[in-house]
Amino acid sequence: MDPSLAIETSGLSKHFSDNIAVVDLSLRVERGEIFGFLGPNGAGKTTAMKMLLGLISPTAGEGRVLGAPLGDLEARRRIGFLPEHFRFHEWLTAEEFLTLHANLYHMEQEYLSQRIPELLELVGLTAHAHRKLRTFSKGMLQRIGFAQALLNDPEVVFLDEPTSGLDPMGRRLVRDITRDLRAKGTTIFLNSHFLSEVEVTCDRVAFIKEGAIVHTATLDSLTNGELHVAVRARNLTPEARQGLTHWCRNLQVEGDQLTFQLDSEDQLPLVNRYLAEQGVDLYTVQPKFIALEDLFLKIIGEGESSDPREVSGNLET
Ligand SMILES: Nc1ncnc2c1ncn2[C@@H]1O[C@H](COP(=O)(O)OP(=O)(O)O)[C@@H](O)[C@H]1O
Ligand SMILES: [Mg+2]
After folding, report:
1. What is the assigned CATH class of domain 224-291?
2. What is the pTM of this model?
């Protein structure tokens, strides 16, 4: 095994009596990588993550996180974890809750008295530091969960469905925090059953189904192709509309809704700039990478009949 990798597993499997949750999982995640583990409910994502964290032991196979065997206590000090379903000590305030967890890490008083306010600020809960968790909304609980996962300034963070149940503001916060972590070189392992979640944050994605990885692909390879764009705009003049055909194929306009296709993502800023220069008011611009969505549906959505080998393109595995 390669100690320079953030995460590496070989043949990792987990059976619960006659239920096979994870089958022969072999993974390599580089340091600094944002790795998406994408699959429907029941695919085995949480089970795989719990094995990586050493919270449950594998039936077969082995793995390393930060160069140490799974569950190693020294390595665990350098790992953060946001569980999928967590129950907090609801009688504690946000600050008391983080202090409790900091104490579980045996953090120095000096460090935690600076780190806790910093994290409350990061997740937008400074104003609620002295409120009991009992009074928190689901979104606020998810934020404090995030702060907890980052307390020890981890080198690897495991996020299990971090945006499920969050409103758009909450999802955006998660995305921003993930980007900050990326900029710092933190490795992120992200479980999700939402394509949109991995699409915007991850470098690489593994599609998992019925306990096994069915494909691994870099987001680059999947987002290089044709792009479908939906725009909401007002004041589109006939001239501006005519000008758009320079880049856009299949341009359709219905009221303030425009849809079109571009040959690559690189054209999108040019189109945006053009529309702005023409005095068009842009409300939303939504790009959709067809290759990624098609692949997702083929592998994950449409079930048993599709053969993943039919999927062509720039896949690695
Ligand atoms: N403790 C357990 N006992 C028995 N079966 C379990 C247990 N945990 C998970 N499973 C089963 O393992 C499979 C994978 O579950 P899970 O890892 O939670 O999937 P995901 O996180 O992708 O939704 C499911 O069929 C689930 O019912
Ligand atoms: Mg799960």
Report:
1. alpha beta
2. 0.80
